[in-house]
Write a structure and sequence with these properties.
The chain is of the alpha+beta class and 238 residues long. Helices cover 24% and strands 21% of the residues. It has 2 domains: 135 residues, no CATH class; 91 residues, 2-Layer Sandwich (Dna Ligase, domain 1).
Length: 238
């Protein structure tokens, strides 16, 4: 059984007034989550926890074929936006304090603030643990791969045909790949702390979160920006 089928079946089994699937993810909700969670080309939304009072889904948790994506609108002491791929999620720690005044459900150190949701925090924790068990049962590795991640503050330089562009936030790079402005199979990336440029497809966070290259002719021109980054190694131009 594929991960996509596991996620789809799990979401379907929890369909309720607080957990939206399929046709129940209506036009306004779908439009908002596509923007807020930056859903990529080729990414399918299977489930949605809407954590807004008026049903806009701008504050929500989204279950796609790639990952669990969360955007928190509440709480000053938590990460507002984060995502975790399913193979890493399968072995994450899901926790809730059990206190009635605590609306946060944690996946490792990241919180889902359920204030405004029709689902109680305990129900969300139960749903997540059940999904974890389903993923483990399908044969997810007992020790997840080491995954390169970047915070919202990390900026990346991109090398195309020997020219450097950027810096860009990680989500912007992912969005530009989806739009065809960058090619993950041929373009290179670098950020502070890396000893050298690496092909984008060899950087885990981009390999997992970007679609295959679009057809030729979809690229848009980007103005090069100077900046003290390492020289692109010889032989790495297209």
């Amino acid at each position: 059984m594929s991960i996509e089928r596991v996620i789809a079946e799990a979401c379907g089994s929890y369909a309720s007034r607080g957990f939206f699937v399929g046709a129940s993810i209506t036009g306004r909700k779908r439009q908002n989550i596509m923007t807020v969670h930056e859903i990529l080309h080729g990414e399918t939304v299977y489930g949605l926890i809407d954590m807004t009072v008026f049903g806009s889904a701008k504050h929500s948790a989204v279950f796609t074929n790639y990952k669990l994506s969360v955007h928190n609108a509440w709480g000053s002491d938590i990460v507002r936006s984060w995502a975790i791929p399913w193979d890493q999620f399968a072995h994450a720690k899901v926790a809730h304090s059990g206190k009635k005044t605590d609306f946060n459900v944690y996946v490792d150190q990241f919180a889902i603030n359920t204030a405004g949701s029709a689902l109680a925090p305990a129900e969300v924790a139960t749903l997540l643990r059940d999904l974890q068990q389903r993923l483990r049962n399908m044969g997810a590795p007992s020790e997840p791969e080491a995954i390169e991640t970047a915070t919202e503050d990390v900026e990346w330089m991109v090398a195309v045909n020997g020219e450097t562009f950027g810096p860009y936030k990680e989500r912007a790079v992912i969005r530009y790949v989806a739009q065809g402005r960058f090619d993950r199979t041929r373009d290179y990336v670098w950020r502070t702390g890396m000893p050298d440029w690496r092909r984008m497809e060899d950087v885990d966070v981009f390999r997992r979160n970007t679609p295959p290259p679009p057809p030729p002719g979809a690229e848009n021109e980007l103005p090069p920006l100077p900046g003290g980054v390492p020289r692109l190694p010889k032989g790495r131009k297209r």
